[in-house]
Amino acid sequence: MEALQNRIYLAAMLVLLLISAACATNPVTGEQQLAMMSEADEVALGKQAYPQAIQQYQGPPPQDPELQRYVSKVGDKLARVSHRPHLPWEFIVVNSDEINAFALPGGKVAITRGLLTRFDSEDELAYVLGHEIGHATARHHVSQHARSSLMSLGVLGVGIALGGSGWGGVAQQAAGTVGGLTLLSYSRDQERQADDLGSEYMIKAGYNPKAQLEVMQLFENLRTSEPSFVETLLATHPMDSERIANAKARLAKLPASITSRPLKTKAFEQAMATQRKRAPAYREAVQGDKVLQAKRYSVAARHYAKASKLYGGDGIFDTKRAVALWQGGQRNQALKAAGRGAYLSPGLLLTQNVKAQLNAKAKHWLPAAEGFEGMTVIVPQSAELQLYAGYCYEQAGKNQQAAQRYRRAMRLDPYGKYGQTASQRLRELPGY
Ligand SMILES: [Zn+2]
Predict the structure, then answer these.
(1) How far is the centre of ligand 1, averaged over its atoms, from the C-alpha of 186 (Å)?
(2) How far apart are CA 44 and CA 46, in angstroms?
(3) pTM for this model (two decimals)
(4) 232 within 8 A of 98, measured Cβ to Cβ
(5) How crowded is the C-beta side of 315, counted as CA atoms within 13 Å?
(6) Which residues touch 106 (CB under 8 Å, ≥6 apart)?
(7) Which end of the chain is more exposed for a tag (fewer CB within 10 A), N or C?
């Protein structure tokens, strides 16, 4: 009997192996490729990672739908002439100051405000989007090289204590451990292929491919002038003199009718109008980040205050100010600022996380519960956050709300430590 069971088990394992080692045709090269996942799996994985990846980069810039529409339009134009036009393509601007762009499996592409503001033309944007589309169409995510990174895709985890490492620590905590997919680093061969594809797609879509050279030059310059801002980009998309030489060689082979196409600068500036106006506010906040890292808390708080005076629509300035004030010992002001940040930008893990954690530290349990509750709206599958929300409600004397959150934690994580802790607390809750 045992032998039979073993055989059944082995057969099942074999089937699994065969499925996972199935060959698929690469949509770009037409070659057979050892594919880890089907296209449906690819799309599902990208879709699953998308909301958290966006949170990691501080969500979309507030109140600028024109810019989102514009970037989607440029992206769709390129995707339509790509090797996989049928994917559910989605292009989004994220509000981070970092200079970065990334593609998730299955056709989700993001570009940071930090990078967008460095461009002068739509053609430069088209090159970066085209390059990212190239990574997705050539299925670089599912190749051998990327495999180990994919495995590290984790569930969001948030510690209840505010780390002593200042702003960076807070940001990291709020972003959780979803880095896996956005931090995939491509091989040099994959970079070369993405450059080729990006160039091909932008030419097909009517852009001037010379813009790719300008973008590469920009990255090279930033490498020396602002290394911390391009660190991730250059680590994930290796950049070297060979890429520039290849781009020059590619351009030399093209007819003048293509390389003399007028650069689309006017449409670009029009789409960027709102962000150009807000730029002084974000520059001010970046100054704040720098001095905060140097532990000059009151100077940092002043920079953030000035930033929110220059542009009052982004709660992140208040949230950062809250952290600076808290670290500087001005706790009551910090709690007020944290509340304002979460109120202005309720859809950001960062603002809700700071509100939750600072109030929990101050034992202001109701606003702490609201902060965790705000986070559960963004990440509903996290038992950990449900447990924290429940705990804060319990401390605030709101037993009914506490019981509800504990039950959710138990449903989400029946055998794990969060579900177990929730179940124990529920048993000890008077009246439950
Ligand atoms: Zn790349």
Answers:
(1) 6
(2) 5
(3) 0.84
(4) yes
(5) 23
(6) 39, 42, 43, 44, 45, 46, 47, 87, 88, 136
(7) N
Q: How far apart are CA 409 and CA 422, in angstroms?
A: 6
Going 218 to 80 to 205 to 76, the CA torsion angle's sign is negative
Q: What is the DSSP string of 216-282?
A: HHHHHHHHHH-HHHHHHHHHHS---HHHHHHHHHHHHTS-HHHHTPPP--HHHHHHTHHHHHHHHHH
| Residue 27 one-letter amino acid | P
Long-range CB contact pairs, 364-371, < 8 A, 24+: 364/335, 365/392, 365/393, 365/395, 365/396, 366/392, 366/393, 366/396, 366/398, 367/335, 367/339, 368/392, 368/396, 369/393, 369/396, 369/398, 369/401, 370/342, 371/338, 371/342
pLDDT tens, residue by residue, 404-419:
999 999 999 999 989 9
DSSP H or E run through 214: helix 211-225
CA atoms of 141 and 147, how far apart (whole Å): 7
Residues 6+ apart with CB under 8 A from 221: none
The model's confidence at residue 374, banded by pLDDT at 50, 70 and 90, is very high
Q: How far is the CA of 217 from the centre of ligand 1 (A)?
A: 15
77 vs 6, 91, 164, CA distance in Å? 54, 11, 46
pLDDT (mean) for 142-159: 39
Q: Is the pLDDT of residue 89 over 90?
A: yes
**Where do we find the tokens 């339009």?**
73
Higher pLDDT, 293 or 122: 122
Ligand 1 centroid – CA 279 distance (Å) = 27
